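Action item from last week, closing it out:
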Amino acid sequence: MAAAEGEKKKSPVSDVGAWGMNVVSSVGLIMTNKQLMSPAGYAFSFATTLTGFHFSVTALVGLVSNATGYSTSKHVPLWELLWFSVVANTSITGMNLSLMLNSVGFYQISKLSMIPVVCVMEWILHSKHYSKEVKIAVGVVVVGVGVCTVTDVKVNFKGFLCACIAVLSTSLQQISIGSLQKKYSIGSFELLSKTAPIQAVSLLLLGPFIDYYLNGKSLMKYNFSSGAIIFILLSCLLAVFCNISQYLCIGRFSAVSFQVLGHMKTVCVLTLGWLLFDSEMTLKNILGMVLAVVGMIVYSWAIEVEKANARNILSKTSLTEEEIRLLKDGEEKAPLKDVELGETKG
């Protein structure tokens, strides 16, 4: 009992640590990639290939971890790993194509739509239901992030199709991370170690062609300066922590929670962009960020209310060890009754 209570007390700290790692690594990765990929920086405009580098380093870390005995490797069927990798790579490619073919405003709207899409998918696939408070909180977050990020909105058929593929595949990927971990009782890092090599090989093979289609530039003609190499390595290092923390968070919580609280990264990126890169910060941005943060706080509260209600229901429908013991003692001490005569035997 004491050990169980210890685990419960320990859990919230590790949960906060997982979220903190994800926010810090994600924001750091975005800032690093902005310097690496912007024309004013190192103009490395090969996003898909860069993601292949990220998964290559992640796969190497997983290989070293398994070889040194730091992590164990559990069996997951190859077809499930291949299926997951296809979905994950479709998500990456779809997002890159969506950003290229659509306006920034529509791209942001498509990312915001992932929250309701994940909710619907979890309802269809896992029969999951959400309370009224959670639905309201999700709505507040979507509106808040939309106000501070969405600008011009232009839609074309190709862009709309790519955005739909990107949203569906990304949502399915995030749901699959949690379901695979539960299905095979596998840790987040172990699952990532198994999928990273497949994603790395496929992205490194297809990435240069996809990037050439996206920007018309060849990777072979890029000038790899020492500064660009340093930023690529830094990007890969941050991506390892980002990937691990993503799997950790979804494994511990849910795809919806990851999407909702993940928008804290959007708020951080906007703030850092204003502080470090002289991005414009308007009253609309500030109001939107405040609304988004309020929505995240309300969402966290609503989730805790759901958990408390679930615990109350469980406690009402199940007996504790102490209650069972008292019932047994009561039965032993209770006087025996003569069923035929309806009298109590002394």
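Closing note: Confidence is low (pLDDT under 50) at residues 1-13, 332-346.
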